[in-house]
Write a structure and sequence with these properties.
This protein has helices at about 5-25, 40-70, 80-100, 110-130, 140-145, 145-160, 180-185, 190-210, 220-225; strands at about 165-170, 170-175. With about 230 residues, it is mainly α.
């Protein structure tokens, strides 16, 4: 685990800036045409979670440097960190495995690379190299699944309420992704969601296994974890 705080601070600050620029670019801020519509998608919402997390981690790392020294604990809110890491991992895997092959727009644009690539990989890397072990609890993977489940409920309610996510070929699509589009696959949405949640929880328990079995357990001071 990295313990040199100034290195972690520089890394987290740089990552935060890139993530922020990528998200703002996606929302059209840099071209003077702000568009809030992308915020309806899981991709943007999970990116916002990571952005908020890295904002907090950057500030906390900077604050600890003059008081706790330049070397020491850089692990903060580890359970939340794990939850957000798993949430953005879903964005990364689903996009490149299930969405990118059918993408009709340019893949290699700055915002697309950041929100679907750099942000997820940066969050995963930060979790892997800065977390102390023994932080997760046995039911955490189930709690982590609340994030995608909440998004699915949001998308379902929005779709049946008349929200149009996109229009293509004169057809209005009420749901954000084809694999949860009731208009396209009907009741199979339930099967897709059940399978996806099962895989998601399974990945959560893999994180728990790594946290407990593959590393030496470290007891963190309560102040470092904020009891979370």
């Amino acid at each position: 685990m990295i313990k040199t705080r100034w290195i972690v601070f520089v890394w987290r600050f740089a990552a935060f800036v890139v993530m922020l620029c990528g998200l703002l670019s996606k929302l059209g801020v840099f071209v003077g045409k702000f568009d809030a519509h992308p915020l309806l998608y899981y991709t943007s919402q999970s990116n916002i979670l990571v952005l908020v997390l890295f904002g907090f981690l950057t500030v906390k790392t900077a604050v600890d440097m003059p008081y706790g020294g330049k070397a020491g604990n850089v692990t903060y809110i580890p359970r939340i960190h794990a939850a957000v890491t798993l949430a953005i991992t879903l964005t990364f895997v689903v996009y490149w495995a299930a969405l990118a092959p059918f993408e009709t727009r340019a893949l290699w644009t700055f915002p697309n690379i950041v929100i679907h690539g750099i942000t997820p990989l940066a969050c995963i890397a930060d979790y892997m190299v800065t977390q102390q072990e023994g932080s997760l609890k046995k039911f955490d993977p189930l709690l982590f699944a609340v994030i995608p489940a909440a998004y699915f409920l949001q998308a379902t309610v929005a779709g049946f309420s008349g929200v149009v996510y996109r229009t293509a070929g004169g057809v209005a699509y009420r749901f954000p992704y084809y694999f949860i589009d009731y208009d396209m696959i009907g009741g199979f949405v339930a099967l897709v969601v059940i399978c996806a949640l099962a895989v998601y929880v399974g990945l959560g328990y893999l994180m728990l296994l790594l946290d407990r079995k593959w590393r030496k357990k470290t007891v963190l001071p309560r102040s470092a974890m904020f009891g979370i």
